Amino acid sequence: MTALAPVSAAARPRVSYRPGRVMRRFLADRVGVTALVVVLILVVIALVSRFWTPVDPTAQELLDRLEGPSSAHWLGTDNVGRDILSRLMRATWTALTSCALAVGLAVAVGVPLGLLAGYAEGFLDGLLGRISDVLMSLPPLLFAVAIVGALGPSLTNAMIAIGVLLMPRFFRLTRISTREVKNEDFVEAARASGTTTMRILGRHVLPNIASPLLIQISFGAAVAIVSESGLSFLGLGAQAPTASWGSMVKEGFDRLAENSWSMYPPAIMIVVTVLVLSLLGDGLRDAVGRQTGGRR
Amino acid sequence: MLRFVATRLLTVVPLLLLLTLVVFGLVQIAPGDPAAIIAGPEASPEAVEQIRADLGLDRPVWEQYLSYIGNAVQGDLGTSYTTNEPVTEVIGRALPRTVTIAVFAMLLAVAISLPLGVLAALRRNRLTDRLVTGAAVVALAVPPFVLAALLVNYLALGGLQLFPPTGYEPLSEGFDEWFRFAVLPAIAIATISLAELTRQARGSLIDAMEEDYVRTARAKGLGRWWIVGKHAAKNAAVPYVTVLGLNVGRVVGAAVIVEAIFNIQGFGQLGVDAVLSRDLPTMQGVVLVSGVIVLLVNLAVDISYGYFNPRVRAG
Amino acid sequence: MTGPVSTAANTPPTALTTGRETVLEVADLGVDIHVDRDWVGIVDGVDLTVRAGETVGLVGESGSGKTVTSLAVMQLLPPNSRVRGSVRLGGRELISLSEGELNRIRGVEMGMIFQEPRRSLNPAFTVGDQVAESVRRHRGADRSKAWDRAVELFELVGIPDARRRASAYPHEFSGGMCQRVMLAMALACEPSLLIADEPTTALDVTVQRQVLSLIGEVQQRLGIGVLLITHDLGVVAEVCDRAAVMYAGRIVEQAPVMELFDAPQHPYTAGLLHAMPDHVRHVERMGVIPGRVPPPHDFPAGCRFHPRCPFAQEPTCTEGEIPLRDVTPGHTARCARLGDLELEDAFYG
Amino acid sequence: GGGGSDESPAAGAVDDSAVLRAGWTVGPTSLDPHMATAEVVWFRFGMTSIYDRLFTVNAAGEVEGMLVDSWEYTEDGLQLTMTLREDVTFRDGTPLDASAVKLSLDRARTQQSPVVKARMAAVTAVEVPAPYEVRLTLDGPTPAVPYILAENSGFILHPDLVTSGDPATETNGSGAYSVESFTPGESLVLVRDRTDYWDPEAAKIARIEHRAVPDFQAFSNALAAGQIDIGQFQPNNVASIEGRRGLQAVPVPQGISSDLLFNRAVAPMDDLRVRQAINLAIDREAITQALYPGSEPKYQYYREGLQGHDPSLGPIGRDVERAKALLAEAGHPNGVDLGEMLVSTATTAGLLDVVLEQLAEVGIRADAVTVDALQIFPRWAEGRSAALLQFSSTGLEPGAGASTSWGPQLNPAGTTPEFDRILAAAADNRLSQEERNAGYQELNRFLREQAWSSPITWINYPWVMTERLQGFSAEMDYATTLGPYDFRYLSMQADS
Amino acid sequence: MADTTSATGSAPALTVTGLRKSFPAQRNLLGRVTRTVDAVRGVDFEVRAGETLALVGESGAGKSTVGRLVLRLIDPDAGEVGVLGRDITQLAGRELRAMRGRATMIFQDPYKSLDPRSQIRHSLAEPLIAQGRWGRRGRVERLGELLERVGLAPHYLDRFPYEMSGGQLQRVAVARALATDPELVVCDEPVAALDMSIRSHVINLLRDLQRERNLAYLFVSHDLSLVRVIADRIAVMRRGEIVECRPTAELFADPQHSYTRELLSAIPAAHPRNRTFRAAPAA
Ligand SMILES: Nc1ncnc2c1ncn2[C@@H]1O[C@H](COP(=O)(O)OP(=O)(O)OP(=O)(O)O)[C@@H](O)[C@H]1O
Ligand SMILES: Nc1ncnc2c1ncn2[C@@H]1O[C@H](COP(=O)(O)OP(=O)(O)OP(=O)(O)O)[C@@H](O)[C@H]1O
Ligand SMILES: [Mg+2]
Ligand SMILES: [Mg+2]
Ligand code: NI
């Protein structure tokens, strides 16, 4: 007797689908857990800043501007005498909300379209795919600048721009993952037993693309933070008096010669946030195992 | 192979068309009246009307689009609203600055990422690997503008004053001169790509080393370096080159901020200025040209797949 | 394509099995792999010999450790593993050799072919290049000589239009053709031992026949020893001179094929034989072995097969080490109740 | 006559072959002075070195002849006759005479252009009664025309350039310099290529390179690193750069101020009490001290020492209580939303934050919208925004300045009959200097009473330059009105 | 030349006539198909109730495609597929869904055919929900019964696929295929991915169930020795066509088509005595 199918296919572990193990592996990854903790701390800081900051972040002591750290102002004061620590906390809120909204927009548009294109294939798929190719071919920041330029500088518009920027990522990922899942035997099995398309999408396709999506959200959030701070640095993002890391870096940079200090706290916040978001993404990716669709 | 290249070339055409559509659409959503901008703040309504007619802005949108494409194909991207020069000329002036710096940055990134990535992959999970990957992760998190600010503060100003903090000299002024001006912006632009490419080089080499054919090569008694240099490298090159292509866009994007900091009147700066001053033709041109560059780079990447991976040649 | 003609069919096999020198001698081989902070014993106490011109089958279910054993012989185990025991190739101990020394042995004195021929060939280089490469590295031949040798090898393994096909890429070949290329590659330096790890599992029956016949043919011509790993007793029955049955990291029975099929001594071997579809015997039901193969970290004490064994007795089968015992010369089995079992019909539930 | 001052900080041997590198935040996009979109940008970016004007304005804000030797108005104030110097020639020897002047002026007032044509609207005809005499017919007895002809409108181009050249890319003027290279929006390199310039005091520098450095920090980096020799600085940053590598700072009280302009046409800005409340909310002293050190708080519309200043108008102090009371009186006891407040990208860093916060403290809220400096006026003119935070310049002549500052571009609400009456009464060339001054003072009081805007600070710009530069001072031509932008009398000290 | 008549006289569960299907193999730039693979090129056969028809042939012969066409998981280019008396190619919507309760499928690799993220309970309930014939409570009961029938304890309902062995999973897959009391089951290499000791479990189960419920099997397989044991009739496929379709014993005794002969001669012997490729070793 012979069996042409590779027997070891059954023996090969399919790590990517073991929810319990994914969790365990993630928790065993010290870097990933630390990153998650830092992200949570950032979220807490952002939430707290809505109710409490050491000093009113908008209160200005005009004559005590550009001071170094002191007991009254732990991180010193900025160009118009505001408490940098308090502004930094408030800016955390700005960063995280705008990041969440940008990523949310990208997901809200990219994922359904990706599902549609991946499941339907054909002309629609080709068209959407091409559009995303074109969007991906535009240099990200320049494209964001152009969108903001078209819409007018504001944090909302910056978020829209970043959302548009991130959309193709989510679209592509969803499309590829959907394609792959769609051709899986278990989807065929579901169809064979008369399950409706909507139910297949909801019960089989979505849960199975959830982990690559989560990973991509983590990386997308990092991209959003970088882009938002970049746009704010250029003056195209958050507008006064909203505190934003990018504009705080810009303020500090403009005062480099007078006070070389005030640039660093927001810069460090950006770097740390981006760092932990990408470490989180790395951790999730490692925990989930080698992913399909993540690589081209 | 020839046929493969030809088909690849053809696939770019619809992308280019879509690109022009995106670029043109971008301008359509922009509020404000271009004619009023050209006319200047103190112009009369008639003057504005006259300009509108001269520019053909009173024609239907699709007509404007068709004539835009028609002209673009002939290398005419319109006339800058602010300088009244042909956009191609404005871009032609700014582009070489960015391109030389970007190429420098990419060379830097490749030259450093390859050895580092290979080293890390071969010393996987050992100290060298951890140092390299750790540094790459951190570098990946430093936005170019932060890095640029640090470089300016410490290397150009401060006590060291090793390099000029602003400006650009073309290569025609001599390599030394160009290098002095280009090195800091190039580092600022290159770092993220460098980090990503290092990770990619490491990752794809590790992946390749786990493939069955590497086991075959080992079973043939081939030496480790031979296997890495021949069998793994050519296969690992595909994802690496892909990421390299994707980073071209990122580098041009990073130029937007870095050029502002270094006051280089390059492509990015041109784009930002055009956006800020609503110089729509220039803005269109910048987005279009950058898109075309990235598309062409990706085309080159695609074609390179044909070399690295004979399977795709079959189509 | 060369037909599945078996030219060697008339050669008396006895001349091959006896009297020839031992090519491979594996003694008390053990492999541990480091998984999740723990060393897990995957394979242990494996003894195997392969003589020149002989085909030895290594058969067992998935996960029983066949591949790990073969990789240990080739010294190709992943870095997170350690090997115990002895592997002697042509009398030379391999376990202690350096990587450089091994590289002068692998591909020269022993060659290996794998289960998935397509994945085992480098997609980025022509097949000719991949074969010629071996020749160049080990024989120091120049480019064109090596290429000629590759073409010659392709002719040997029955690739039609060899000179032209040598400059094709693996993806332009069918699975069977790829396996021929692999074989050519393994034979490039005329090794004394060929290890084939499920070489036909991914192939069609007709192609399987061709490849197996080819291996036999080449073996006859070159007089090499073959270690053939398979999970298919049919293949063992067709081509092997002797066979070893592996279960849960151990060899449970080893015998000349005739004896193994006629008089299996270990219940597991008997179970496997009964589970082979047989149109005469299986009109109603097929033989079954209850349960499943345990994963390496769960290997039970005593006889590793005892939880599935209809004859298992406490404590005879559940405690202590059960040694491999001789049944007849050349036939050994690892069963605590060796000899007092009636194995026929035991597996028809 | 030249306004060059010899009170330079350090006098020494002049280096006749010196190179001067000047940095500006914006560069002009063409070489055509008449096509300027923002007069000052063209003016300061080397245009004064290439072309000569009919008039110039000294540091006291008074107009003086430059190419014009003498000038007079007719009795009814409707004609201005100018007699030209006879010793001025172009490079090719062509005399700069009345016909050349007519050609340039006619081009300036008739050619469709962003700014200049509108500025020349008062001139309805140009005649040449004699070879060196030009007569302008005016549409009213305005005193502004000589001032206007001291700026871009008064640059005289070579007749050939006007008739057959392209002034956007070529230059041909009577100045001592011509263009070596020009990159629109970026740089302009001028070289001195004639020794027969009519004013021997001028043109002591062999080569002038103007460069645009838009980013503020890049600008100060460039100065600190010695990549540029002179630049206008932001007041609050000068401390950092002073004394570095042989740099000196010269404060110049230019006629430029930061103001919060109101659109009286939209609610709630149509209510005087709201406008007054805003004025009372702003703490000018603190803002000036913090963001504009060395500058003066601005309480009225004309600067001390210039026409129209009224010493009787005292400071406007910050008074949160009264501001709130006024708001309550106006029907906004819980504060008021102004709506959109436009801010130019060129506004001093931090000013917006401070203004918003100070307004917020009395309960006035506004949505700041940042707009590019070049587009902010069209946007403002649309009339939908409530306020505009912007630099404004007084202009060379109070009357002309007033009609621009409160003209449709900068004042979407328009003027009132009362305003027009006061302005028309003051801006009359038949009046004496003192009479006009009194008229402008009345205008000044009117604006402040009606709170048409909230003035904030008169900016004293520090100019930072290499110590080798001589002849730069607050007493240069234009210095206190437009800014010290006429570089003709600067010189560089030879290295010792 | 295919013999489509069946040995037994019972009613046909499946009648296939003139079935054709081609797939796009190459597209040009505009997405238009420039080359096609004819996977199935005019196939006729029939399977009667209680009968097993095996479909054998080399890889790529089109066996799976036929299986998928029969259940209309893909649409045929031409031909009729009569399933339980109705032409499935003409059904749509509700009717098609109902038909999928009566004709079901078992796939090759149970690790792939069961959603790795769903508990067995959910995978098993899916066909019941789709058919909507069992209430919530009835479903729960039925799931237990189904598992029991394939020889698994009810606590397996809460397991995830990765917690189970291949053989257990394939039994779950069998349970799923039988959940809606079908009359026809298409088995696409149901044991090819299983270890030999497990394989016989599943085969025995399938045979028991067939006898119990008079099921019709369309049994796709590579494995000729297995097919010889379980099939009533065998259809040999080659390049999209059935070259020979005969009762099992007849086919093995007297293969007509050269390809069938080639196929049969390639089956490895069950005992070294009967070797055909190489000489038998000494006893
Ligand atoms: N690199 C490894 N890390 C951890 N465990 C391993 C590794 N390689 C093999 N194993 C484990 O060792 C055991 C034996 O594996 P091996 O591949 O030798 O089995 P096999 O008999 O070849 O099976 P198959 O028929 O599936 O090829 C399995 O349980 C497998 O999971
Ligand atoms: N969805 C598809 N798109 C394109 N080609 C397909 C598709 N499905 C099958 N084919 C092609 O149709 C032919 C028949 O495939 P099919 O899977 O039916 O063969 P099979 O006999 O089941 O083979 P195997 O034994 O390998 O499972 C093959 O050439 C295959 O490549
Ligand atoms: Mg194996
Ligand atoms: Mg199939
Ligand atoms: Ni036992």
UniProtKB/TrEMBL annotation, chain A:
UniProt-listed Gene3D superfamilies: MetI-like
One matching Pfam family: OppC_N
PROSITE patterns: ABC_TM1 (PS50928)
GO cellular component, one term: plasma membrane
Family: Belongs to the binding-protein-dependent transport system permease family.
Any one Gene Ontology BP term: transmembrane transport
Protein name as catalogued: Peptide/nickel transport system permease protein
Keyword DNA-binding: no
Location of this chain's protein in the cell: Cell membrane
InterPro entries assigned: BP-dependent_transpt_permease (IPR050366), MetI-like (IPR000515), MetI-like_sf (IPR035906), OppC_N (IPR025966)
Transmembrane region(s): 31-52, 95-120, 140-166, 205-226, 263-281
Record-annotated ABC transmembrane type-1 domain positions: 92-281
UniProt entry keywords in alphabetical sequence: Cell membrane, Membrane, Transmembrane, Transmembrane helix, Transport
Membrane-related topology note: Multi-pass membrane protein
Top-level division of the source organism's lineage: Bacteria
Automatic annotation (TrEMBL), chain B:
GO cellular component, one term: plasma membrane
CDD domains: TM_PBP2
PROSITE patterns: ABC_TM1 (PS50928)
Domain ABC transmembrane type-1: 95-305
Any one Gene Ontology BP term: transmembrane transport
TM annotation in the entry: 101-122, 134-158, 178-197, 286-308
This protein's record includes keyword Magnesium: no
Subcellular location: Cell membrane
A Pfam family: BPD_transp_1_N
Cell membrane as UniProt keyword: yes
Family: Belongs to the binding-protein-dependent transport system permease family.
Protein name: Peptide/nickel transport system permease protein
UniProtKB/TrEMBL annotation, chain C:
Gene Ontology CC annotations of this record: plasma membrane
InterPro entries registered for this protein in UniProt: AAA+_ATPase, ABC_Ni/Peptide_Import, ABC_transporter-like_ATP-bd, ABC_transporter-like_CS, Oligopep_ABC_C, P-loop_NTPase
Main location: membrane
Gene3D superfamilies, sorted: P-loop containing nucleotide triphosphate hydrolases (3.40.50.300)
Xref: Pfam families: ABC_tran, oligo_HPY
GO molecular function terms listed in the Swiss-Prot or TrEMBL record: ATP binding; ATP hydrolysis activity
Membrane topology qualifier: Peripheral membrane protein
Entry-linked CDD domains: ABC_NikE_OppD_transporters (cd03257)
Source superkingdom: Bacteria
Compartmental location: Cell membrane
Similarity-based family: Belongs to the ABC transporter superfamily.
NCBIfam families hit by this protein: oligo_HPY
Name of the protein in question: Peptide/nickel transport system ATP-binding protein
Automatic annotation (TrEMBL), chain E:
UniProt keyword annotation of Transcription regulation present: no
Database matches in Pfam families: ABC_tran (PF00005), oligo_HPY (PF08352)
Domain ABC transporter: 14-264
Cross-referenced Gene3D superfamilies: P-loop containing nucleotide triphosphate hydrolases
The entry's keywords: ATP-binding, Nucleotide-binding, Transport
Full protein name: Peptide/nickel transport system ATP-binding protein/oligopeptide transport system ATP-binding protein
GO biological process: peptide transport; transmembrane transport
CDD domains: ABC_NikE_OppD_transporters
GO MF annotation terms: ATP binding; ATP hydrolysis activity
Keyword Iron-sulfur: no
PANTHER family in the cross-refs: D,D-DIPEPTIDE TRANSPORT ATP-BINDING PROTEIN DDPF-RELATED (PTHR43776:SF7), TRANSPORT ATP-BINDING PROTEIN (PTHR43776)
Family designation: Belongs to the ABC transporter superfamily.
InterPro entries with a match to the protein in the record: AAA+_ATPase, ABC_transp_ATP-bind, ABC_transporter-like_ATP-bd, ABC_transporter-like_CS, Oligopep_ABC_C, P-loop_NTPase
